[in-house]
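Need residues for this backbone.
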């Protein structure tokens, strides 16, 4: 398995480790619920160095990305980030990613860890514009500092005024104690609890980790594993590639029409297919649901109606650590997608009552 710059630290801290996307990653330290609540109430640090980073540079970068991605990069200013997805010829999602407009004619694509090689292959094979592409995944490390005390923690380590970095924006500056100046500090959190992500060269990892935990000591800062990262994103209704999104789900089906822009002159892959879906409707929709009976919905469980007819499938599910109620996402037939519609989740051959709700499931 691959290692991040922090793998040995996780092991030394007693984390429960497991393979994820080819990396030896921490799943939990003190328990998923404890870590989840630490992020909601104070501050936690996630090692997300397994994520991939791909640079697109040069005068052909923008036209190339406009064709590859569903969102409209023409509107993306330098210093801003944008959620978007790479679309295949059938209208499926190759990956959901974040694009950073780093400099004029220079963009950084942050891709899912499990899709790095797939995305790189897709982008290079479809690079008709001959944009300058670089897979920098092995040369960039990333930590996510999340929670209501994240700003106070990180502000101790940088001269950048973090209050001046709006959501889905970033700045480039120093992290004191590391000797490193060109750190990307980004406000694009995946937890719904507020906070920042920082991107830096891997060799500075240990120094930055130690500086963060010293700065956050007064807030009882904790390392957080992938288990709580999953429950936090699910409480917000954020999609996870491989569960809620894949090569055969379209952004329109997934409720991502807001990042699918049919702007004049933007001829992106499968535009005609997705435009037709938006106009005529789809055969399934990704919806949030909440359990009305005690039970834990799991990925792959059937969703049925009152007549026990299958109407969909659960893609993500858990017990909400903050509400103690079963929650989930799933694709269902459109006629059952309206809010408050009663449905049933088949748990161990028992049909348990649930209802369609609109995420987030957590009160912000």
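Answer:
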């Amino acid at each position: 398995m691959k290692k991040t710059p922090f793998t040995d630290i996780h092991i030394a801290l007693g984390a429960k480790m497991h393979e994820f996307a080819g990396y030896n990653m921490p799943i939990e330290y003190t328990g998923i619920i404890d870590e989840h609540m630490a992020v909601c109430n104070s501050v936690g640090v996630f090692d997300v160095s397994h994520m991939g980073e791909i640079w697109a540079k040069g005068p052909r970068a923008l036209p190339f990305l406009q064709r590859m991605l569903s969102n409209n990069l023409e509107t993306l200013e330098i210093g801003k980030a944008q959620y978007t997805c790479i679309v295949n010829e059938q209208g499926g999602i190759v990956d959901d990613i974040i694009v950073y407009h780093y400099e004029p004619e220079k963009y950084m694509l942050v891709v899912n860890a499990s899709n790095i090689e797939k995305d790189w292959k897709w982008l290079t094979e479809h690079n008709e514009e001959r944009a300058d592409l670089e897979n920098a995944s092995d040369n960039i490390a990333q930590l996510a500092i999340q929670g209501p005390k994240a700003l106070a923690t990180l502000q101790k380590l940088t001269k950048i005024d973090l209050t001046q970095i709006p959501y889905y924006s970033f700045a480039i500056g120093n992290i004191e104690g590391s000797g490193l100046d060109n750190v990307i500090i980004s406000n694009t959190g995946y937890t719904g609890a507020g906070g920042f992500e920082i991107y830096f060269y891997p060799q500075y990892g240990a120094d930055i980790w130690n500086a963060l935990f010293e700065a956050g000591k007064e807030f009882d800062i904790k390392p957080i594993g992938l288990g709580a990262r999953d429950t936090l994103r699910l409480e917000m209704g954020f999609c996870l590639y491989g569960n809620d999104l894949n090569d055969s789900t379209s952004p329109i089906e997934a409720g991502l029409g807001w990042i699918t822009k049919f702007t004049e002159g933007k001829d992106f892959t499968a535009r005609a297919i997705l435009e037709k879906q938006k106009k005529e409707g789809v055969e399934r929709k990704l919806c949030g649901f909440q359990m009305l009976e005690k039970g834990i919905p799991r990925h792959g469980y059937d969703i049925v109606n009152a007549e026990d007819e299958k109407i969909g499938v659960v893609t993500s599910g858990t017990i909400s650590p903050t509400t103690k109620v079963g929650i989930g996402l799933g694709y269902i037939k459109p006629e059952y997608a309206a809010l408050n519609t009663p449905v049933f989740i088949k748990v161990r051959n028992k049909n348990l009552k649930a209802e369609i709700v609109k995420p987030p499931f957590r009160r912000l």
